[in-house]
Amino acid sequence: MSTILTHIAIADGKIKRSSLEVLSHCKQLADQSGHSVEAVVVDANASSFVEGIQKYGASKVYVVEDPIFKNHMNTPLLKALVKVMESANPSVFAFASTEGTKDILGALAANQNAAVLPDVSSFELMDGGVKAKRPVMAAKIISNTEAKGDTVLVSIRSGSYDLAENETSAEVANVDFSMDDSELKATLKEIISASGDTIDLNEAESIVAAGRGVKDEEGQKLISELAEVLNAGIGASRALTEAGVYDPSLQIGQTGKVVSPQLYIAVGISGAIQHVAGMANSKVIVAINKDPDAPIFEIADYGIVGDLYKVLPPFIEEIKKIKN
Amino acid sequence: MKFYVCIKMVPDVNAPLQIKDGKLIQDADRQILNAYDASAVEEALVLKEKHGGEVEVVSIGTSKASETIRKALAMGADKATHIVTEGNGDYDSGSYARILARFFEDKEYDVLSLGKQSQDTDAGLTGSMVAEMLNLPYATNAVGLEAEEGKLIVKRQGDTGQEMIELPTPCAVTCSNDMNEPRIPNLKGIMASKRKPMEQVELSSLGLNEDDLTASTTVLGYEEKPEREAGKKFEGEAGEIAREVAQLLDTEANVI
To answer: What is the ipTM of this complex?
Structure first.
């Protein structure tokens, strides 16, 4: 019997849903193959998340708690994960694919001499390794890839698996951790956060995304109103984040975030492949665009051909009515 | 500051492609400079123009990759090293990282810069692998760079905000294409690039053989993505179609 270890990411004082999706899938794989599934949480308040992790079936939770983990920094996170890997000795170590994960995955693989499959949309165990599907070529096609080795690291795109609760009474292993300043190779000077209480796009059930067609403040106001009635996160195409209209952390696409909400409303977005790469796995896609030939309509479940300035006000009104 | 920028020739993801018997076939076999690497070159050039220094590009690839290297030289890089491989179909990120780590092991530099990922595979591993192998402080997904005496200040796009990170040099950084708009080489640059030094290095002269570079991951084949069908398209009076779709999202799609 071997161990599947899963990393539990924390954001804004909460467990990231995408991490629990990964844990849910790993629990299922472990049950099928007779392996055990364990979890590791690294945070300034790591122990407060143990209960939440137990709900999803980990038989053991490694807790690495230290004030240094208040903000993401790669050196301490790497050190913590190396330490946990050395005691858990996992055959597979699975992560939700976040910017935090992307920052350390290659380094961790190099440190542990492990094989690594980043940003997969699904994976399964095989003899001596892991088999996975990876979207490639701007997510236009799928590459079937296998990794062989005693240890395989894998990171999974958010929304790839459903949550499955599976209450267990996990053993808790507190991991000693300390790091002095001389070990810290870099210094985090400042964090420039996205404005206020924006909804994390990787976690959002619904997303309203603005593109080049959203030309002015009036358009942005309509986007905000629609997002508000739907309790949706706001995203943007690269054109608008580059122009400084929206915060760069809201960019959706090959370069920005890859999202898969239940509802994705693309407003004034033409649908360039780089954008589609970041949202094509959304469950229901609505596109609003005045160009009837815009490529976004090829993947939209509901395509509204029209001027967003004329379409959005009645659309928002109607959704308000439905909600009430 | 001495910059080394690692660049890669990659297939153009915008070119039409087909899958035949699990193999990927690109109609025109268009190969270009990876967009993220182009941003890394651009940013190094900007910092060199500001603070002085030197920008050298390094690329691993077949003889064809020299075209991509010339492009970086035409943008303004001072010189280049081409680590020549026979083929590159079977290498994975780990193989590339081992070659780069070996190459840089005895080099002197302030900043080792790379694109954050290759636009064909989107793996994004090589940068942090090389940093770990060389025991360098590093930052990934940089959207801005500033140089100070003995330091590189990186603005990094994190999950929810931007992080300002100070790295002591020598250090490694991986660059996003959100950092800048890479310059298009002008005629003068193109002419000058032909006279710039491009050193060719064989893997064997780095003391590496194919066994050292065996990939731990293998692409078994490619398949089409499950096709997403175009749904219903609504045209007509804006208010009418807006209300109709809103109703359908409630009653048919069940998402509001």
So the answer is: 0.95
